[in-house]
Amino acid sequence: MIENKFGMTKAELAALMDISAVRADCSLEDVREAAMLAGKFGCKCAVTLPYLTQDMKNFLAEFDLHNKVTLCGVAGFPFGGETTAQKVFGAKEMVALGCGEIDMVMNIGAFKSGRYDHVAEDIRAVKEACGDAALKVIIETGYLSDEEIPRASELVCKGGADFVKTSTGFVPARPTNLHMIKIIKQTIGDAAKIKAAGGVRGLSLLLSMKDAGACRFGLNPKAATAIFNEFEVLQ
Q1: Which of 4, 24, 84, 181 could cross-link to 212 by cystine, CB 3.0-4.6 Å?
Q2: Which residues touch 115 (CB under 8 Å, ≥6 apart)?
Q3: Residue 6 has what pLDDT?
């Protein structure tokens, strides 16, 4: 049984998950569904786009989940090409709304241009703006080679972020895979945590990524529901 083999209950599995509603076409009903499922399963976070973050907060309160599910906001999402000032403003706005965690996108253009100091300082400025809120930095592994992933991960740590996050999920041609998680873990060790997102489909892959070092997973409602259903069938 998976629960015995991995020493994990359904509640412990749920605590590894962030439920997201971050597509450009997300509606109010999509946000409501994400909040509802986060509460139903007992997930760690519920995250949506900035315009809908207040709505997510309201739904969490409506379902009496505001002290059970962490509200998560985004900054510089989904491309990372904003100026540092814009990202800082966005992070501060989300924290002011009550977000306990922030997911930001690394400046991928700066990284590809070899402006590594700028990448690290961009992250550092947003981390400072987050205050006590945890910062997860998306390096967008789908755009990076196996040689670039370690450098990007190191810059996230240099900037003081709490997590290296793999992807926004908007690079479908190269989704997050187990190999990427292994590279990140081998690079950063325990200097930061790892969040896998963008391609985590199925319980087996999630558990393999967990064994490789990921401790948080970003999933949309459909993917999360499928994984929980699989867990219930196999346990």
Answers
A1: 181
A2: 107
A3: 57
Residues with active-site annotation: 103, 165, 195
DSSP 8-state assignment for residue 141: G
Give the span between the Cα atoms of 227 and 70, in whole angstroms.
Answer: 21
- Cα(192)–Cα(88) distance, rounded to whole angstroms? 21
Q: Residue 196 carries which side chain, given as an amino acid letter?
A: A
List pLDDT tens digits, range 46-87: 999 999 999 999 999 999 998 999 999 999 999 999 999 999
Which segments of the chain have a pLDDT < 50? 1-3
> Which alpha helices (H) appear in the chain, and where do they start and end?
2-6, 10-14, 28-41, 50-62, 84-97, 108-112, 116-130, 148-158, 178-188, 203-212, 221-234
Q: What pLDDT was estimated at residue 60?
A: 98
In the 3-class helix/strand/coil scheme, how is 46-97 assigned residue by residue? Answer: EEECHHHHHHHHHHHHHCCCCCCCEEEEEECCCCCCCCHHHHHHHHHHHHHH
- Tokens representing 194 are 């790892």
Cβ-in-10-Å burial (0-12, 13-18, 19+) of 173 comes to exposed
